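Team,

Forwarding the record for the chain on the shared tracking sheet. I've put the sequence and predicted structure together so nobody has to dig through attachments.
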Amino acid sequence: MKTLKIDFVSDVVCPWCIIGLKSLELALERTAGEVSADLHFQPFELNPQMPPGGQSIDEHLKEKYGASPEQSERTREMIRERGAALGFTFDMDKRSRIYNTFDAHRLLYWAGEQGKQHALELMLFEAYFSRGEDPGSYDVLVHAAGEAGLDPEQAKVVLSSGEYAAQVREREGYFQRAGIHSVPSIIINDRHLITGGQPPEVFEQALRQIAAEG
């Protein structure tokens, strides 16, 4: 069996990131026995300047992309359908604001040292997209850490101490300098790049081809 290093560059307020992750997970299930993944989640902030408390999604999308409420609604429905097909629930009625995620990325860095990064990433996607919670809130982050099998008290210490800020900044800078300016960006074995919320078949084909290269 071939082990592939996979860097999944993402943000937990990016709907295409959870779609891409669910597709990748399904592709890895389909290639089980042939391919295994050494999976690392790498930080990317869609809104690094976002103040505490966030911003209305409709207002944000209009400012950032010029999207009308009608266009935004059509996009949300497409995202909801894609998620449902992959077993993920987008509850768009509960998600009305977009937030800064730097502290979430600090906690994810710590979770990586505990072997729980994948689990925490999923819990944070659920908190935001399925329940409309603020991933910048320490209470939300600590609860997600507990759900992911991490020690909530230790999570509180990490958050309140500002720990891992330098490491997250370094990782963000590294991938930006490497040309990553949108997410999800999935880098396999440091040289193969797949971007966007691709369907499982795209990931499956890529995994098989890269594994076959030896």
